[in-house]
Amino acid sequence: MAQTLRKDAAANRERLLHAARDLFTSHGVDVTLNDIAHHAGVGVGTAYRRFANKQELMAALLEDALDELEGFARRALSEPDAWVGLVDFLDHSLDLQFGDSGLNAIMSHPALADDQVREAQTRIAPLLEELVAKARRQGAIRPDVEQSDIIFLQAGLASIRNRSADVEPDLYRRYLQIFLDGIRADRTLTPLPVTALDATRTHAAMTQSRRPSHRRG
Hints:
The chain has two domains: 1-52, Homeodomain-like (Arc Repressor Mutant, subunit A); 54-210, Tetracycline Repressor, domain 2, CATH 1.10.357. The protein is 70% helix and 0% strand. The chain contains ten helices and no strands.
């Protein structure tokens, strides 16, 4: 009986996470835990036994996404050709970011605690830094490219994707290719006018929308 209850609890948890992904994709991340429970076909009480609140559910989604993202980064690092690894990481991470997990929207939502968002930096940034450094050592990319450039690229592509998804959901890939062509080392390089941000300043820039404004209205 106990094993059956554990299986039922695990199944309900997965149904709730799947329903949250569906609703976040179709209605945005401001839906309620009650909405998610109804969409999952489970009782509201069951939902609150699995997750105390929507923040806890979003944290679980973020954890799952970070596990996937870390797997992509480690696989990219194991690829002997650093350029192939970097492109593979970008392809898969962008699919995750724009896919049904809604990673981009989840990470920017104020319902998540700051330490949960910082976990993304702690886990992923060092791997991405290592991947970019490997590509520089192999001469695959221009020597002034940094891991923060990749992060800001993803943010820029997210903006393009948000504006064009209803017209052409894959339009962002055009600009991804333009970027990739621009960082390859096998061409004449134009000096970059601004120095790349370090990891701390990148994190501050990427999470500024989460911080309340102190300006007087």
